[in-house]
Design brief:
The protein is an alpha+beta fold. About 45% of the residues lie in helices and about 30% in strands. The protein has one domain. It is elongated and about 70 Å long.
Length: about 120
């Protein structure tokens, strides 16, 4: 009987770790895709940056809202900070946990020579 209980607890822990890991990995992929896309659109206006990030968020099924995206310029760096909440089903059908992800990306905006 003890073995069955230990196996059940191990299965619950593995399920929770898998669910949390899948959500974190999706966030990492979203953050990386946003970084790569903004790297090649360095001259985009802040409104264009928000539109780009929102499209990428939709592609990764991230529940991001426009008001949760902050675009700022510090010297030659463009910094994009975002945050969103997601419910992670740690134990599907039994236990959900709300987690806030705060992806951030920055790119160097270089001025072209002779422009």
């Amino acid at each position: 009987m003890k073995t069955i209980i230990k196996l059940a607890i191990a299965a619950l822990l593995l399920t929770a770790a898998f669910q949390a890991g899948a959500a974190a990995f999706n966030n990492f992929q979203f953050e990386d895709a946003a970084q790569q896309r903004l790297l090649f659109d360095a001259r985009a206006t802040p409104d264009e940056v928000v539109a780009i990030v929102m499209k990428i968020a939709a592609d990764y099924q991230i529940p991001l809202k426009e008001e949760n995206i902050e675009v700022s310029n510090v010297a030659q760096d463009r910094i994009v900070q975002m945050h969103y909440d997601i419910d992670i089903n740690l134990i599907p059908g039994v236990y959900k946990h709300k987690y806030t992800f705060t992806p951030k990306t920055s790119t160097r905006v270089l001025q072209g020579v002779g422009r």
